[in-house]
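Input record, target 12 of the design panel.
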């Protein structure tokens, strides 16, 4: 019987075993994941009260599917691409590129991507990604961890006398809830598909 702290296989390891693949598998998955993060940053979905990208969805799903180590490595590769000046972030190159963009208003959220991928990957390795409710709980935890440094960085940059929550949190809550609901359905369904393929 597996205890609550037992490390369990991640979704990606169930699809593509790490046995014998080593660094090449990790490199391929990290590159593919970084490309997905770039694409998700560029997808602008009409929504209320503000349009949304699919990036937080991609960060949380990659974290859960890849696990904490590969998930963080993937997000770190994506951030490194941005730091080198590639237009991988939302609003780039129009809003700037490279390190200048990364220390701007969205910088805290970029740090949050790393933290959220770690948290979601850790919880996935503890089996939180197998059912609807535990997946949803893991996604909520990941989203809180993602937004916390983002909002704190806005406060540092602009001062807490400004409407920081109205700038960096409340307009996005409905969109985040929608994306989390989608991810909470998709991830357990993916596990179900993997299990059915094995039988």
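The sequence produced for target 12 reads:
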């Amino acid at each position: 019987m597996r205890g609550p702290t037992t490390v369990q296989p991640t979704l990606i390891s169930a699809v593509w075993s790490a046995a014998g693949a080593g660094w090449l598998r990790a490199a391929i998955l990290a590159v593919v994941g970084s490309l997905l993060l770039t694409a998700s940053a560029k997808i602008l979905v009409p929504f209320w009260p503000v349009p949304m990208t699919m990036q937080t969805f991609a960060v949380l799903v990659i974290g859960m599917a890849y696990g904490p180590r590969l998930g963080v490595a993937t997000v770190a590769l994506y951030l490194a691409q941005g730091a080198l000046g590639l237009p991988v972030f939302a609003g780039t190159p129009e809003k700037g590129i490279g390190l200048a963009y990364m220390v701007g208003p969205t910088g805290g959220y970029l740090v949050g991507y790393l933290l959220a991928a770690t948290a979601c990957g850790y919880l996935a390795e503890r089996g939180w990604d197998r059912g609807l409710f535990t997946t949803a709980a893991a996604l909520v935890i990941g989203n809180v961890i993602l937004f916390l440094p983002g909002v704190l960085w806005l406060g540092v940059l602009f001062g807490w006398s400004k409407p920081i929550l109205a700038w960096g949190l409340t307009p996005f809550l409905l969109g985040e809830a929608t994306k989390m609901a989608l991810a909470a359905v998709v991830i357990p369904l993916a596990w179900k598909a993997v299990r059915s393929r094995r039988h």
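The chain has a mean pLDDT of 93.
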